[in-house]
Write a structure and sequence with these properties.
With 278 residues, this protein is an alpha+beta fold. The protein has one domain (15-276): Alpha-Beta Plaits, CATH 3.30.70.100. The chain has an eight-stranded antiparallel β-barrel with strand order 1-3-2-8-5-7-6-4. The N and C termini lie far apart (48 Å). It has helices at 6-12, 36-53, 68-71, 101-117, 173-189, 233-240, 244-249; strands spanning 21-31, 58-65, 90-97, 125-140, 159-167, 194-202, 222-229, 255-265. The protein contains seven helices and eight strands, in the order αβαβαβαββαββααβ. 28% of the residues lie in helices and 29% in strands.
Length: 278
């Protein structure tokens, strides 16, 4: 069978190949009740690699989990992202090389069609919040010291907080982004256990996506923030994260926090935490 192997050498010789995370895949998933162990093993043993890391230009990834006690810390109770707000006990985050989004998408659509056809897609799960997103900014607590955003999924951070913010109208998002980047985040990060926050805006999924993944909402009005923590989120939740919703609402920017959700990293190759999801 001709696999056009020479094409790989041609593709490697052209186009962007920097290290910046120009794009991300952020996918929060809820395994159906009774399928938690089987889902975890499928994702870790097969899909994380064959359906993600083996793809061109997806160069870093990490899985995170929310045990039941972490799920119960989430807010707001009525969320435009998760219904109920506790849905989505696993989240996976991946970086895609800046300028390679279109190239990656061609591959990911093709490989997922193949995986589905070959029976290598686990169906007993629900995509709660799955979107490819474009990188807008990264704000660091310690300036030039410490890991950069391209290290974030490889550095052994102890926790992740996912924050999703919506504005009422598309034209308000630029003002929200500027306020977050220049005023709000530097203040909140100072002296906190969070080393950095990466900010992304969602992009539409292609029309030929898998049917079990719903089209992305909030493409013009939403920002997704990933807070990378050096401490377990349980230890610092009340002091540093419980009030984020009020702070955003009080800024007068027409913005509302639709999700603040803490996670801890999974331990690859194990079923640690699976018995603590319900």
């Amino acid at each position: 069978m001709d696999t056009h192997s020479e094409t790989y050498a041609e593709l490697a010789a052209v186009g962007p190949y920097g290290v910046r995370p120009g794009h991300a895949l952020i996918t929060m998933v809820e395994p159906h009740p009774g399928h938690e162990y089987a889902y975890n093993r499928w994702y870790e043993d097969d899909h994380y690699y064959a359906g993600a890391m083996a793809m061109p230009w997806m160069y870093a990834g990490r899985r995170w989990v929310a045990t039941r006690d972490l799920q119960l810390l989430r807010y707001p109770e009525k969320s435009a992202v998760a219904e109920p707000v506790t849905a989505g006990c696993y989240i996976s985050t991946y970086w895609v090389t800046e300028g390679r989004y279109d190239d990656h998408m061609k591959w990911t659509v093709g490989i997922n069609k193949r995986l589905n056809r070959d029976g290598r897609v686990y169906q007993d799960r629900t995509h709660v919040f799955t979107a490819f997103q474009d990188h807008e900014a990264t704000v660091y607590r310690d300036g030039a010291a410490g890991p950069r955003d391209f290290h974030a999924l490889d550095h052994p951070y102890a926790g992740l907080v996912v924050e999703v913010i919506d504005v009422e109208r598309a034209e308000q998002r630029a003002g929200l982004l500027e306020w977050l980047r220049s005023r709000h985040l530097p203040k909140v990060l100072a002296g906190s256990p969070a080393a950095m926050v990466t900010l992304f805006r969602p992009t539409p999924l292609p029309g030929d996506r898998m049917t079990y993944v719903k089209q992305v909402e909030g493409v013009d009005t939403r920002l997704t923030l990933l807070w990378f923590l050096e401490a377990d989120p349980r230890e610092c939740w009340q002091e540093h994260f419980a009030g984020l919703g009020e702070q955003v609402a009080g800024a007068g920017l027409g913005a509302r926090v639709e999700l603040v959700a803490p996670f801890v990293p999974t331990v690859p190759g194990t079923d640690r935490y699976v018995d603590r999801l319900r």
